[in-house]
Amino acid sequence: MLNDAPASVPAAARERHVLLLDLSKSMLAPLPDPDTSRPERQKVEVARTAVFRILEEAANSGALFGLVTFTEVVRVPVPLGEIHKENLPYIENLISLLTPSGRSAIWDAIATGADLLRQGTDGVRGNLVLVTDGWDNASGRFDVRASPGAALPEGKVDLVPYLLPANSRLSLRLIGIGNGTERDKGVDAGRMNQLIDQLTARAQALGLPAPFGFQEVTTGTALFTQMVHAFIDVSYDSDLALEEMHPEELARHAANAARALKEPQQHATVARIRSAQVAARANGVNAYTEAPDLEVGVLASAAGPPAYLKERYGPLGEIVEAYLQGEYDLALSRIAKAQLVLPAVTRLYWEARVQYARHAVVEAARALLQAWTEAEKLPSPSQGAVLRRLAMLQARMQNDKETETLVRFIDSTEHALANGNAGARTQLMDLFAKLLDLRGTYQLTRLAGEGDLQDAALKHESAVEEVFGLLQDARLELSTGGPAVEGALDFIEICLAEMR
User: Which of 365, 318, 360, 363 is CA-nearest to residue 338?
Assistant: First the structure.
């Protein structure tokens, strides 16, 4: 994302972002806004406003940014490069002059975006975001198969392997405007989901991360928010304590984390921590543990790595020391030597972490998968904290900022209250577990048939109201709990509002 980066960082090492913006004639249509006091704005006007915000952030961070626009013709008004503040007025004026017309060459535009991010034998690397309100009806060269193995139209090139060659590190977010169930009423949701599914399958076959997602928006506010969040980093800052976070920052992170609950297909890792939270709650156990033989997260400290690594952690301390010094081969060697000493989940977690640091993605994914298997064999009191640590690593590997944010908040709340009021900690963790339960009822509102939709929506709203009632009770009972408790309650309330 558009993180702060010093100007001295070479261009090859900076984050790379390309926006693909639909400028077909349908982008002139208005978008409603939940605030009825505001006038409706054209889709293209909302998109332009978001682009101006993204450009400003790119100019401040030093990240590389490019803009591709498309009708039946694909153009590159802003080539991939550094955005200088003194050039912003010129670029913004250029964007304000872009006028929608014609049809949509969506697949050709995505291929052009991939070309901007292509790095020779290293594949396509960077963040690609598509904004469209239509169906592809003008691409001359590329297409997406209707199903795996289906034939392409004569003369067309398969977009999926072109977009994701071997060695790629691509993040792709598709933002669709409108209702995607009927032609000419909005985005082609079916083909967008086909593209995501085929890219995910290819990424898995190549052993690559799969940070691909599709999101429909139906209001101007949602379009602006999704576009900005696709570029501006909203991940949780692990160096900032929960109780020290500014209310606006807390709200931003909470709204982002709620997407991990609302988009289960793109954030499947949440299901693993949900099962652990629910199991712990059902068994009436305290999810927090400091089991001495499961030092999975020895770096999880706002003050930095623990003192006296070797003395305190023995063989694991030696592994962590080599990891922190960037001596990854030495760390792997020490992991191999300590195989009979370390618990399996600890050893496999650190093997995955070291392999990921040395960019060995396939080996890292394999070790992490084995760590999940071992962790699920643990008794419930030990599972919660360990599974969350694995979830955070997996989210980092998949560039899944939403899941990472959600898990970090749960983890931070538990650790902040580890030595405090046990009743408050149990009550908050129970609320988090119920919040995770809402993921299931929310999904039913998206899967229900036309006849069952109202019933599913009522059940979900009832579940949200139940958790909201428990939250209000907790506010009264924990009114003297301190900033960490207040921060956790605020976080849960914002997530609930997003889940309505």
Answer: 318
The tally of CA atoms less than 13 A away on the side-chain side of residue 128 is: 27
d(CA 145, CA 151): 7
Bridge partners for 186 per DSSP:
178
* 13-33 as b/e: b if 16+ CB within 10 A: ebbbbbbbbbbbebbeeebeb
Angle separating helix axes 344-357 and 361-375, nearest 10 degrees: 160
Q: What is the pLDDT along the chain (500 residues), one digit of tens a residue?
A: 554 444 444 444 568 899 999 999 999 998 876 555 556 789 999 899 889 888 888 887 788 999 999 999 999 999 999 999 888 888 888 888 888 998 999 999 999 999 999 988 889 999 999 999 989 988 999 999 988 888 998 889 999 999 999 989 898 999 999 876 666 668 988 899 899 999 989 998 998 887 888 888 888 877 887 787 777 643 333 444 555 566 666 777 777 777 777 776 667 777 777 655 544 444 444 333 333 345 666 654 444 556 666 666 778 888 888 888 788 899 999 999 988 888 888 889 999 999 988 888 889 999 999 998 888 887 766 677 788 888 888 888 887 778 888 888 887 777 777 656 677 888 888 888 888 888 777 776 665 555 566 677 788 788 888 888 888 888 888 877 777 788 888 888 888 887 77
Q: Which of 260, 100, 234 is nearest to 177 (CA)?
A: 100
**CB within 8 Å of 190: residues ≥ 6 apart:** 180
Is residue 304 classed exposed, middle or buried when 0-12, 13-18 and 19+ CB atoms within 10 A define those classes?
exposed
What domains sit in the chain, N to C, each tagged with a CATH number? 11-231 (3.40.50.410), 242-499 (no CATH)
Q: What is the pTM for the complete model shown? A: 0.52
C-alpha span between 351 and 328 (Å, rounded): 10
Calculate the alpha carbon distances from 27 to 78, 92, 109 in Å: 20, 18, 16
